[in-house]
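Quick question, first post here. What does this chain look like in 3D?
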Amino acid sequence: MIDTIKLREHIYDVVGAVHNVHKVLGPGLNESCYQEGLQIEFIQKKIPFKKEVSFHPSYQGITMNATFRLDFLCKDDIVVECKSVPKLIADHRAQLFNYMRLLKLPCGILVNFLPQYAEIERYFYDDEKQIIVPANRVVQGHRKEAL
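> Answer (accepted):
Ran it through. Tokens below.
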């Protein structure tokens, strides 16, 4: 079972940094600009992070040559994927979900910086049950509804 109370505290810090970056830089820039701003914000707010974390998935216990790269890994348990696109689509969510699942990380945040107001989606991954649920469907460690 995932500790959603601890994760919500971590999410709060990261989302606050996202809002600050969007407020300062505004909408309409390219993704790399927002990533750099977010990196600066994480450093200033003393939020532990790693940028552009590369990893190789495994198949039946064998490490594959394929390489994936996260935009950010924050506080050792949150994948942060940044976009600057007209609209978030299923492919963007699938990318985040695959990273969470492959790395068995309990939390993911998908951010779209392009719109007037940053779009921020938060998700929890339960490795034991192998399900991903939107964070707004989880209250104090329990899901609001069964999937």
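The chain has one domain: 4-139.
Residues 4-139 form one domain.
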